[in-house]
Amino acid sequence: MSLSNRQRQLVLQLISAEGAVTAKQLAESVAVSVRTVKYDLTDIRDWLAAKDSVLKSAPRKGIWIEASEAARTALREKIDDQLADNYLAPNERILRMILILSQTGDYTTQQQLQARVNVSQTTVNNDLKKLAVYLEQFNVKLISKNYYGYKLNGTELAIRRLLEQLITQQLNRKTLMAELVDSLNTKTEPKRALVLTGEATFDHAFNTILKEAIRLGKQEGDMPDPSALIATIIRLTIGVIRQGFNQLVNSYHRVEQSQTDQQYSDKLIMKTLAFYNLPALTDDYDYYLGQSINAKTAAQDHTWLR
């Protein structure tokens, strides 16, 4: 039998643990329920038995793998071999970690990051060091707190500019830009959902807003230049996710419908915010229109990690 990616991460954690680990700790490390972990442990127990190792558990103590040091090393190598085919490239991992960290205003533990990007603790540690250096280009810091984890720290505009840069790079690197431009020019929805970042929240929001942009274009007749519209869709994607957990550009002052120009972009913004049940706030609205971005900063050529 083969293990799922999550089950492999649980095995790695048990192999590396000094002593027993509780089911609750395992569940928190991979962001699932204790019940799900218990189902996973049944498969893990069978998998270990086929490799002459034993998964042990005891009330008020926890769960551990009973194996010699040599057997633990062999198990770790076996897991690493299975994970190799599922590895993200270094740049992809760091992109994913930024997207994960940007979806919450709270801390994310190292174990949660490790489970989401599917690599070892050592690799995550190395990636976090590179990530901290990369973030400095955007005036964003990676801060850490013992027992809590990591979070992004910076102005809301700085974090959103960072995300804009990464998503635009993904569009270009995955050759999706031409497909997007063609869809907008012909006002035809893509035949498949675009896998832009690999993070479901971002990808779903982007595809949802793209479809709304095309539907609105059919109704309105005229649409903005595709490159300008794509930039607006990217900003909306970022904004609805950030605004969804109360990460705002600045004020809570609402924009009244009568205050908007009701051009195509205004209508797209208002429809998107209504769909996500979010208020139209003055500074965020300006951001969606591209009016809050410092031209000099936005024009900088930020170099991706090497």
From TrEMBL:
Keywords: Transcription, Transcription regulation. It comes from the Bacteria. Residues 104-163 form the Mga helix-turn-helix domain. Signal peptide: none annotated. Residues 6-53 form the Helix-turn-helix type domain. This is Transcriptional antiterminator. It comes from Lacticaseibacillus paracasei subsp. paracasei Lpp126.
